[in-house]
Amino acid sequence: EDERMARDMVREWVSNEFMPVIEEHNLIVGVVVLTDPCVIPFNPKGEKQRMTLRDSFISDEFMPIYVAYNL
User: Tens digit of pLDDT for each residue in 7-26?
Assistant: First the structure.
């Protein structure tokens, strides 16, 4: 049930918020990952470590809430 609700929320967000930006700027998006904010690593300066998070996702070291491919 939670997974279905997350999927529905992502679809709605992608349709209403994300797709207009993608189309306006002619972007190609391969993967959108919805994750718990608590799993995002920060460096000592308080900056998000996006590359570390990406590497964790690629190597299956954390489980996202939802993943959408090829938008």
Answer: 788 778 878 888 888 889 88
